[in-house]
Amino acid sequence: VSTSHLQLAAFALGTTGWILCTISMGNVEWRVWHVDNTTIISSGIVWVGIWKVCFISYLHVSPGYKEQFCRKFSGYDFSIPREIYAAQGLLLIAMFMGLLGLTATIFALKNIYMGITQKTLITRFFLLSGFFYIFAGLCVLIPVSWNFYSVTHNQSIAFPPSYYLPSSPVAQEAGTAIPIGIVSVILLLLSGTFSLSYRFPVTANTIVK
């Protein structure tokens, strides 16, 4: 048990990183656009996520009442950059890989704390969890980096007319999903490193299987 403190920390970090990955995936604020035409976009702000785009409009309901208008990205909208759909897939993979990493870590820690001294089994599951965590972290890193690059270079998106959006903003900034994703990447990579660093104590009375 005394040799698995880092792996226990890996479980805590991996759990937090996985939760943050899930939060960032569902967050619509990846890129925050500022537009000058407020005829339809009443607040002048558009939130561009990886699943949908949203803005506040007064035109769809009674005056003085805010309504958030959202449009989900469809695979039939060929003007939407393919990177958005790639980001969707990568974050789904990251969530699944992170869950596998947590499961492998729980199994290995359970064996340790129950006094089961099967060296090969415990070591393999820590190696598996480390691989899953690191792979999940890299899957989150790609869409986070791409969105951050798009923000810093003020890249545009040719939205279809039904989205009621201009093709480019006056300015844009990183939304809350990006820093959440960055923290998730750091925690998942640390968790993976800690899991891979496990060394079974050579002085223990082991049953090698």
TrEMBL record:
Molecular function terms, GO-annotated: structural molecule activity
Keywords: Cell junction, Cell membrane, Membrane, Tight junction, Transmembrane, Transmembrane helix
Topological category with respect to the lipid bilayer: Multi-pass membrane protein
A matching Pfam family: Claudin_2
Cellular localization per UniProt: Cell junction, Tight junction; Cell membrane
Annotated Gene3D superfamilies: 1.20.140.150
InterPro entries in the record: Claudin, PMP22/EMP/MP20/Claudin
Superkingdom, taxonomy of origin: Eukaryota
Record's GO cellular component terms: bicellular tight junction; plasma membrane
Record bears the keyword Secreted: no
TM segment ranges: 6-28, 40-59, 84-109, 121-149, 169-190
Family to which this protein belongs: Belongs to the claudin family.
Protein name: CLD34 protein
Native source organism of the sequence: Bucco capensis
